[in-house]
Write a structure and sequence with these properties.
Layout: E1 4-5, E2 12-13, E3 17-19, H1 29-41, E4 46-48, H2 64-74, E5 84-89, H3 102-116, E6 121-126, H4 135-147, E7 151-157, H5 161-174, E8 181-183, H6 197-204, E9 208-211, H7 227-230, H8 236-239, H9 245-261, H10 265-274, E10 281-284, H11 289-297, H12 305-314
Parallel strand pairs: 3-4, 3-10, 4-5, 5-6, 6-7, 7-8, 8-9, 9-10
Antiparallel strand pairs: 1-2
Length: about 325
Amino acid sequence: MHRRRLGRTDIEISPVVFGGNVFGWTADEQTSFALLDRFVGAGFNAIDTADVYSAWAEGNTGGESETIIGNWLKRGGVAREDVVIITKVGSEMGPGRKGLGEGWIMRAVEDSLKRLQTDYLDVYLAHWPDPDTDYDETIGAFTRLREQGKVRAIGASNLDAQQLEEALTVAEHTGRARYDVLQPLYNLYDRSGFEGALAELCVEHDIGVITYFSLAAGFLTGKYRSFDDAAATARARHVEKYFDDRGRRILAALETVASQTGEHPAAIALAWLMTRRGVTAPIASASRPEQMDTLLRAPDIDLTQEALQMLQEAGE
């Protein structure tokens, strides 16, 4: 399988990243193991998670996703160096346990390493901007972790162009490690936050980009024909906003391209992302084997210029 280099790092990842937000939520440990086995068995290698996943599920407190991945690694079916583990810090894990201050980062990374049952992280991301902490402090903590060998590459999620540029400037002026990876919200519907200044900044500075909500919380799979279809699902609150005229145009375009190619709309939506300027790979989740198989086919889809234009115009 053709791997993509993650920005200017020495890390190479598969063209689709498996989103581990489902582990301990819509996929129990046994199901998660089967999905991970299927993913790496097909030649894919990158897995995204966060310390807080999946605290939103009833009975969870956070750390469930990392714990499942760690148990899967411990089982020994795959060598640690053959997978790329991406996790995040910054979301609230309890009173006084959140943010991007140096003290919390240094504690949180040890918790993540313990749950993942590994001695290093391939990519460590600041999950959200922290208005109470200067970039200098955060980047200083990340730099220490790199020097200690606990983290190979650092980055951030949910930054706009101005915030990313400020973080890069701080790193340059202090001689510390810079953000080499960005994880933005980006899909056929949610485009304005990444396209334009942020995408160009990533291209200019050779920053690896892995997109989250790549399937718009399942909306772009086409399985929800109306909000009523999604109302009783675990993702209902995330998909409600997509049921407008533009959302319906995007679904119609996806269905047209899917019928022309014989592929699933979800695979088409991911294939479109892989063509976008600045994008290294989309993150996508799966809770069932058939969903995983759809994700795995996406890199083999060669969209025509006509199909790309149709999808592009539908989402404008």
